[in-house]
Specification:
11-stranded mixed β-sheet; Amidase signature (AS) enzymes; alpha/beta; about 450 residues; 16 helices; globular; about 40% helix
Amino acid sequence: MSDLTDISAVEAARAIRAGRLASEALVTACLARIEATDTTIRAWAHLDGQAALDQAREADRLRKAGRATGALHGVPVGLKDIVDTRDMPTERGTPIFAGRRPDLDATLVERLREAGAVILGKTKTTELAFVHATDTTNPHDPARTPGGSSSGSAAAVAAGHVPLAVGTQTNGSVIRPASFCGTFGFKPTRGIVSRIGLLQTSVSLDQVGVFARNLADAALLADVLGSYDQRDPASLPRPRPALLAGAGAEAPVDPDFAWFDLPHHDRLSPDAREGLEQVIAALGPRVERFGAAPQMADLVRVQGIIHEYEICQHLAETFDTHWDRISATLQPVVTRGRAITQAQYEDAVAVKASAEGFFTQFYRDYDAILAPSATGEAPLIAAGGTGDPVFCTIWTLAGLPALSLPLLVGENDLPIGVQLIGAAEQDDRLLRTAAWLLRALTDQKES
């Protein structure tokens, strides 16, 4: 293995379990890559190399002793810095929580530890996982944003710092950074992964997602994270789809896709629009185009009402107590959110429920919705912000599983993702459809 940082998580886990690869060697390679490049990328909020190596050596010791090994045994994973860990700080992208040390691991961290993963460290997030950017740069161009709010997780995977990382999405915080950084980004159905032990910004909308360099790795990590947790009101009290199996399955018939022509598509860059049209053309009769009803386009506004109202409720004490330490970017959003009435919020929640019902019916005829992941290439940091999340908003509101595939390249040779959105709780079907799409596009390119 010439460069261990290029190895896939599936391959690494298999090799570690078989004794062909030491976790210590893999973690050492990741730490060396971080040391060589993170001065520019700045993906990590907390990194303790010695602690990571101690975890890796323990994983190797357990394997050599013939003890049980998990699905991610000895494989390093990065965690967005809003995920609580008992043995390292969780500072939530703000000096308000500098030095914060949780007493307990988040549920998803318990799942990672049970699977044998090495928690390499905490990746940077925007302030309180919302609109104010952190200092992380895009590994493909340091003058550009990696996206947000899961900025460090996307950048760390794209830069080869770690094969896998965990993020969260309340609007577009997994899919958009994955697009900008050229990784696979996968957000399972809301309720598949517990949110207990994560910073809560919207009880109705917060969802967990993953970053990886290929489809199988994303599926493997999401499989490990998924669990029922009765403390999370969104957690689904039933079995989860088998995601890695779905990513490796053959579609029984060629899948059918839908494309919605939404009003905000006028925000697409010319190169993104051209690339998406080429994908649609390549799929031919497998894609059906729809004009979007005004009610569907209005879901973007509905998501904003719920998100802004709920973050003001959940973080009221933080905003009240530390207002002078909240960024000038976030303060106007909080002021706007505080002006939303209870009646406006309740109306928005009712519309959200209606949208969920609509998509339940819609997917009886289609395997996936095809959509942009982002407006185009990653914007320049000098432009401010982390990019427009609008192409993720509707699907996040409805809690649908979504996947960004790094299929396109823009005019500056930077990555642009293509998004697939599946039916709720049919995440395995979505991954199977994605695998079919990747093969179909590769076959067309080679023919």
